[in-house]
Amino acid sequence: MFELLQKFHDHAAASGTDVGELFEGAVQKIYEAWLKPGDLAVDVGAHKGAHLFPVIEAVGVKGQIYAFEPIVSMHDNLKRKLKKAGIRNVKLHQLALGREATDAAFSYFENRPAFSGLQRRSTPFDDDEGGLKEVVVKQVMLDSKLPFFRKVSAIKLDIEGGELHALMGAQKCLKKSRPLVVFENGRQASAKVYGYTADDFFQFFNDMDMEVFWLTGEPFLPEQWSKRIQCWEFVALPKEHTGFAAQLPDLCRSVLS
Fold first, then answer.
1. Are strands 40-44 and 154-157 parallel, antiparallel or unpaired?
2. What does 115-164 look like in DSSP terms, one character per residue?
3. Cβ-based burial of 215 (10 A; exposed 0-12, middle 13-18, buried ≥19)
4. What pLDDT does 119 receive?
5. Is the pLDDT of residue 1 over 80?
6. pLDDT band at residue 133 using 50, 70 and 90 as cut-offs
7. What is the separation, in whole angstroms, between the first and last Cα of the chain?
């Protein structure tokens, strides 16, 4: 088990590539295989647009994307890129997502924005080096921003540990639209910072009638929660579409070829 995951790490070591970049490549392959022209997709934590623009390509001009990025500089830069490219089917929101609507404290590392989030987490640098700024952002529930009359096909989330809480604010969407969900999760590290447990995590997806898989296609089981398995990308599928998980190994292999 997890032989394919080890190949990611071996390939990264041999090529001098960050394994995270390879994981991100696999994430892209997964939503590209799922999405069709005309679909509606959601990008939570759009950041610099590394996934936003491939999603735009996947859904085409007749599709639509709802993107969320609370960091002002990141949001504004994306807005400029979209305008310059003449892209009009993206609704870009300068908002954070969570399980309730509120004004929320946000730890923004100006020099290392990828580590920013609604909760402080441990970082490999000190606050001054990271350029820490504590700011207030508007947090909403994803359900409140999605059109009730359209089916959501896929949701991608990468918000530094806040993914489960964001999904808790999207329960109407998950139950009605039955989308693919590709998300980052630090397991116990994220749970500790955001105040939930492994039981909470697995119970949530069970309540949504969804199953969670490792990026490489193995089912993510409760007994694996605390194991030292070096992967932080997961795929949640509606139980009626778990057959798609059989495609995950080949999609991952295509990144390593």
1. parallel
2. G-BSS----SS-HHHHTEEEEEEEEE-GGGGS-TTS---EEEE-STT-HH
3. buried
4. 83
5. no
6. confident
7. 20
